[in-house]
Amino acid sequence: MSISIQRMSACIARVLLSISLFAVSAFALAQSTSQPAAVSADAPPRLLLVAAENFYGDVLAQLGGEHVTVTSLITQPNQDPHLFEASPSTARQLANARLVVYNGADYDPWLPKLLAASKAPQREQIVVASLVGKKAGDNPHLWYLPETMPALGAAVTAFLIRADKTHQDDYNARLTAFLASLKPIETKIAALREKYRGTPVTATEPILGYLMEALELKVSNARFQQAIMNDTEPSAADIAAFETDLRQRRVNVLIYNAQTSDEMTRHMLKLARAAQIAVVNVSETKPADISYQAWILSQLNALEQALAGPPK
Ligand SMILES: [Zn+2]
Hints:
Blueprint: H1 2-19, H2 26-32, E1 47-53, H3 54-64, E2 68-74, H4 88-96, E3 99-102, H5 110-117, E4 124-127, H6 128-131, H7 148-163, H8 168-181, H9 183-196, E5 200-203, H10 209-215, E6 218-220, H11 222-229, H12 236-247, E7 253-257, H13 263-274, E8 278-282, H14 292-308
Parallel strand pairs: 1-2, 1-3, 3-4, 5-6, 5-7, 7-8
Helix pairs in contact: 1-2, 3-7, 3-8, 7-8, 9-14, 12-13
Bound molecules: zinc ion.
Zinc ion is lined by residues 82, 141, 205, 207, 229, 260, 284.
Protein name: Cation ABC transporter substrate-binding protein
Signal peptide: 1-30
Organism: Linnemannia gamsii
């Protein structure tokens, strides 16, 4: 009996949500977040957290553990994230969230718009860009900036303790473990910088920009990369400069972002292969079956192999 009433009210909540996606009432919210019947009465409800991008979602899950339920919105490594469009289910998830984490710096401009359109007094937000002093116009690929994840870890843990003080010790322990798990990435960056600083490389899109800075590599064709990111046409001069870099082997590595590829980037990929320049394939969005840390390390390992050149 109680189950069917719960189902009915959940159904009503769905109807309400679909009628007024952007003006969800507190009543409908309470209904749609009700726990499944199997949860015992004394189990505390999990905190609902939403991340715009799945690498931040993975970090939220690591920091919150069994006390949180995490939804990531951008999860497909085969879709251009710069052109992502929110669906009605996105608005519903944002309406129910206690914490929303998004990149900012114009990477996900649809998200602050949705938040402004759907007020939820109990919802907090963390804009990753403002944690590391970046803004619109800066390179938005902040999850490759070494300072980002420690700053995000601290901010998320502060929220979790605010929202769920009972589990403060657990959250603090999880933050300590999280920060320790970033060390192999820092160690790898330091080792590669020591060995390869100043090496000329190029890229089809500025995805690894911050990592390139941390490694002190010499990156060419910045304007071309910017145009690809913004889905605009690179100038003829910028195209010619890129082609020359590849044909004359002025760069040792091409970093290829398959997730923001088009005819022009595939043309450059072909030239690089023809000139036997090492290619490192990277994506913007984390593959589903791998942690943030393992994902970044695997990309650093691929970069290391490319920088080392063909086996002698
Ligand atoms: Zn990008």
